[in-house]
Amino acid sequence: MPAPQRERHPRPAGPVPALGQAEATLVEHYPRLVRLAYLILPPRLGRHRRVLAAHGVVQNALPARPGPIKKGRVPAPRGDGAPALGWIVRRVVGAALSYEHGAARWRRAVRPALPTVWGLRLSPRIGGADELALEQQLATVPAEVRAAFVLQHLEGYAPDAAAELLEAAGIPEPEAALSAAERLGPQDGTQAGLLLDSVEFDPCTVQARPTDLLRRRHWRRWGLTAALLVAVMLTVGQSAKDPASRDLTDRAAVAVAMVDPASLVRAPAAAWQSSSRIDFTVWPARGSLTGDRALLGRALRAWARPGPAVRVSAAPRTGTGPTSAAPQLLYAGRVDDADVVLLYDGERVVRYAETAGQSAELAFSRADNADVTTAAAVVLTRTESRIRFLFAPWVAETTTRDLLAPDSPARPLPVADDGVSDAVPRPGLTGPCSNWPALQLRSSERIAEKHAFLLTDLGGLSPVHLTYTPPPGSGAPARQPREATSAAALVSWSHTACTLRSTAGDGVRAVNNWVFAEQQLPEGAGQAEWLCSRADTWNGPGRATVRFQPPATTPREPGTLVADARDTSYCSRFNQHILAAAHWSAPSGTQYLLAAGSRAVTRIAVTGQVRADGSGTTLAVKAAAGQSAQLSGVLSTGRTLGAVH
Asked: Which one of 64, 281, 534, 543 is at 20 to 30 Å from 336 when CA atoms are compared?
């Protein structure tokens, strides 16, 4: 449904601030303005480029001679009385929006004016799980929706004032952007503001990482090689004024630098023991072939320019282009019959493999914002039935277990000194689902005491993290996802493990089983569970499946599928309310319509051919198969909730 149109009343433009007043206001509010630009800029730029672009947008917000602003009043945020701030905010918002919607002509005009950083990669500090979830959600919406969300929750604009500013910044339908922004983030506006104000989104407090530690001593040799390449291009008649020629020259120079094995970054062996960031950046280079320059050079050349003899594959929405900086070496060694090289460029894990008599393979997988669990293992080799992993240096204990046998103990998994595991069975993605192998790992006490977690292979380079959210307790705070190693979690996963087949190859990062309700069945038939399984991908969108799980089913029985929603926020931190219904046959043969809602549901009503109304989170009413029924619920806030389908 289109957003309702607001009645517009044109008002005279506010006073144009003097240049000195505008400059003083920009300097005073510089960190605040840069954060605003950073949040609106496209996340696809990556953290480093967004940081630089955000500073460039604000630093170029003032023209040499401020001209008249667009028609309409430009309100100031948070009730600030300074008209100059509202005028600057409008220019910052407009420039940040143009970075996504403007043509390449605008980007070429701005890029030379951006700050320049050589030899370093900048990124804001990593926040918590809430900040990461919000960042992933913001990445799935257009820039104008991000702007509407940020203006209201970070800058404190009222909806009408935010609409006026968005319209002044060039958004033709600001009401639609505001309406879409209402579905983002926590429902608590104060909590949303706190998340936006965290270090995760602060481009003025950044971490600096080197991009070329070992490459700098080769500048002379690289410079000579790049000069020779340029000379060759000039001799074949390429004009120095031809943009295509300049672009080709730049890419050639980057490629020359990238394919030198000496440029590879190598983390110290004990870096993970003293780092507050536990991810691929602290993996040391391991394997028997880390000194094989010929192998490393072939891997880098295949990445820079894969020829027809290289088979390239990538997870969904994962680029396969070369990196702009020297990658980090994670592993180089011989595994089974293949020479394998693992590389990391800050956003992707790349696996290069050579096997005698076969084409070389190059595989790409997203790894941005990986953590202690999602960066704990990488697939080295995979056959139709077996798989070998390389484990992170902080993994202290490795075991395997069958998710379909929750009562069976985990079995030790031998691992070599260089972190390579023995071959283990991989889950069968076709045919009968008779078992489901999973890894149960434990982190070193140096970083987390008694921290065990589950991973399973779904076809990507990084195994998928499995978690569990228990049913709501009486009077207890809302439950949060936790590691799926408890007895209840293993029983829950025994019912749903085989359903993971449907997400194989989707670039899944983690899957959480949430028991959002328990229900006593009619006629004393026992207690059933209502389960929502949410699969989150590395690129943001998620999939939620809702199932009704009756009692006394075998471990392989997944229960009754109620709903399957794709590209949704259902069952995530940003959409914690759910209502579902299913038909069920009692042992006596009587048919029932069962309904259940999450903890905040206070009343459930059924209308249509079946009619019922009751308080609480569950409802059961006799209903013959085929009778129409419409379900609705009421939350503790008074809001009406529809059923998921």
From this structure: 281
